[in-house]
Give the backbone structure.
Amino acid sequence: MTEIVEETLCELRQTFKSGKTKSVAWRKTQLSALRQLVKDNEEKVFEALYQDLGKHPIESYRDEIGVVVKSINHTLSNLDKWVAPTKGKLPLLFFPSRGEVLPEPLGVVLIFASWNFPISLALDPVIGAIAAGNAVVLKPSDQAPACSSLIAKTIPQYMDPKAVRIIEGGPQICEKLLQHKWDKIFFTGSPQVGRVVMTAAAKHLTPVTLELGGKCPVILDSLSNPSDLKVAIKRIVSGKWGPCSGQACIGIDYMLVEEKLAPTVIELLKKTMKRFYTESPKDANCIARIVNKHHFQRVQNLLKDPLVEASIVHGGSLDEENLFIEPIILLDPPLDAAIMNEEIFGPLLPVITLKNIQESIEFINERPKPLTIYAFTKDENFKKKILSETSSGSVTFNDVLIQFLCDALPFGGVGSSGFGRYHGKFSFDTFSHEKAVLRAGFFPELEPRYPPWNNFKMAFIKLAYDLDYFGLFLLLVGLKRY
């Protein structure tokens, strides 16, 4: 396998050196081919996602296929503008020079995909890498084998195999890949594995983007209008259990609500869940299953604490044979339990009560920075406090998950929830180097004059840095360079 990785890397480097990937026409051709791949193999994608995660076709199109097609269309519409140099406004001190920022590809990049959205989280970073003009190695997740196999079989049929390669395998393959020098590593996954990736990258000073996760809270303020509260609950229910049964880095991990509102919220959650997912979600085939036995047991272990189990107010059915866990609501589980200190990544929703919803800010700040914070409130002052007094990758008010679909906004974490950003132009920027270009001329050229003018010159140089519009004057008196 080491030889295969080395041969692949060598071939991709030769392709990049040839300049082929820098052609805008080539980039557009590859992106169009990727879009056609997804459209031609739609049914196969549905089947693979059902095999790996039990996803319904509607969920698969919404969270996987649709995301990829939307991203490609947006990129193709804007690529000419993105690759063009942007003019830099230089101060008069540099007259008559001109400046610009020129985006250039990094080289050969390595992308690690995640298993929970094994199509979109694999192909969306590839879109950015290709748009920026790089050669790419994609490592799909081995925990979604059907999707990994589908990607490995179809990508070479549609895209340039000398510039885009797929390498399948488990942890040993990942270890082999990380032993080599890359021009960029893009990783989506857990913080634990993210640390391993970053440690390996540090040996080669390779830049890294880490898309991790964390315990993303939803703050539910006391909404005076009953219809507003119902809308909030509907969005919370669909956002918690709709995407991959809660196995999502941006999924809701826990809810913060005032004590007096908790009984009403619990009842609304139950009614809405029944309406959305029926009395028997497993039989209705409307919620994804847990990805494998290891993760099933991990989620199951979160409930084994007697005090946690006693806090369950809805659900609790687990089917290990079919890897299915029905939606579970817990009211005030112990804050020192694992369920409140580890990312749940499953269909469990702890509801934590507070005397005053303003306490939610302190509650969040006592924990690692989340990937996102959701808050349902009409209180503008409360919104300002959340923005100014908390830190997270993103904040979404009065809805959930939609920030992930917005190409105009960067997506990424902060602190332990990751760093770096992508989506839309931000994906292009992530896989590009912004090269500064300054174009100077040979005229005018004024020779320096030495004492007794040195002190005078020093004074004017200092003034030039303090007051930029003096630059032209200083140039004319021969002080520009000395």
Summary: The chain has 18 helices and 18 strands. The CA atoms of residues 92 and 471 lie 5 Å apart. The chain has a mean pLDDT of 92. Residues 57-83 form the longest helix (27 residues).
